[in-house]
Specification:
It contains eight helices and 18 strands. With 322 residues, it is an alpha+beta fold. The chain folds into two domains: 227 residues, Rossmann fold, CATH 3.40.50; 82 residues, OB fold (Dihydrolipoamide Acetyltransferase, E2P) (Beta Barrel), CATH 2.40.50.140. The strands form four sheets. A six-stranded mixed sheet has the order 6-7-8-3-9-10, with helices on both faces. Strands 13-17-14-15-16 form a five-stranded antiparallel sheet, with no helix packed on it.
Length: 322
């Protein structure tokens, strides 16, 4: 099931929320839409689901223009961050809810619910009170409910927001595997780069209502192109190009491009030492700009150090126009 948004715009009280958004998602693709809070991510999902109508532009699902098709006829499943399970219904009734609303017969409904609970690893949970479920179990019930009506498209709105990090990684793998087994196209919205990388084949970066960059996770890491993308991808040392003598307006200075040695181009004061992802680092204040560098050991806050920058490793960036 292919998805296309063509020049979609939406404003609230004259304030643009989606600004000429164009996006194409291939059949069975897992797409992440990543951006900071207020970027328009959830609004984009609401437009795709039919809960909001754009002021401009078209929405196509498998070549069909659904811009004016109401939500209940789009066959789009939307899974919310807070899972939105019905507290007065047990697990089985929650999963069956959409099927019952669309008139699916009881025998077919029962079989479909049993199959879905097995698919999400919750066989035998049908009579459980949803209040007794762990956060990960509740999210899998919510996913089963989303999948029950056999949607053409699955939209996931920050589904890991309420899950602690220890369980998040395993649950992410489970959800990705389930979606692949079903074979449905999906769009996963998040502000978390690690979630986007773990889930998606392709990531679209949304900033101030505009898609500024789309690519595979390794491509966005190596070639972010814009300052906003580099920061969202968690790149260290996104700085004004003039700080390191580069011609570009801004650059990424990879941590391994900086060595501390006598005679370097830059001089700075050690602000702090830290240990990140198994690597000891220094944060050095260079004329008011902090740069992270590998810590060769023996340095303390307040010491003046000389830094050599390998300019061949710099990644040029454009300053966003949005």
């Amino acid at each position: 099931m292919s998805i296309a948004l063509n020049d979609v715009c939406l404003a609230y009280d004259g304030v643009p929320v989606l600004d000429h958004v164009s996006l194409e998602v291939a059949p069975r693709e897992r797409r992440a839409v990543m951006g900071p809070s207020g970027a328009g991510k959830s609004t984009l999902l609401r437009v795709l689901a039919g809960l909001e109508r754009p002021d401009q532009g078209r929405i196509m699902i498998d070549g069909q223009d659904v811009t004016d098709v109401p939500a209940h006829r789009r066959r789009v499943g939307l899974m919310f961050q807070d899972n939105a399970l019905f507290p007065h219904l047990d697990v089985r009734a929650n999963v069956a809810y959409g099927l019952r609303m669309t008139g699916v017969s009881n025998p077919e409904r029962t079989q479909r619910v049993d199959d879905l609970l097995e698919l999400v690893g919750l066989g035998g949970y049908g009579t459980r009170n949803v209040a007794s479920l762990s956060g990960g179990e509740a999210q899998r019930v919510a996913l089963a409910r989303t999948l029950a009506p056999q949607p053409r498209l699955i939209l996931l709105d920050e589904p890991m927001g309420a899950i602690d990090q220890a369980r998040k990684d395993d649950l992410m793998i489970q959800i990705r595997t389930i979606v692949d087994r079903v074979g449905t196209t999906s769009i996963y919205v998040t502000h978390d780069r690690l979630e986007a990388e773990a889930y998606a084949d392709t990531i679209s970066v949304l900033v101030a209502g505009s898609v500024v960059r789309t690519g595979a996770p390794p491509d966005l890491w190596e070639r972010p192109e814009f300052v906003s993308v580099a920061k969202l991808m968690g790149r260290a040392n996104v700085v004004d190009g003039a700080v390191v003598g580069a011609d570009a307006a801004a650059v990424v200075v990879p941590v391994d491009a900086i060595t501390i040695e006598p005679g370097g181009q830059l001089s700075g004061t050690v602000v702090s030492t830290s240990f990140r992802d198994g690597v000891a680092e220094l944060t050095v204040d260079v004329g008011g700009t902090n740069l992270r560098a590998r810590d060769p050991g023996g340095f303390a806050a307040g010491e003046v150090v000389s830094l050599r920058v390998d300019r061949a490793k710099l990644i040029p960036l454009a300053v966003d126009q949005v």
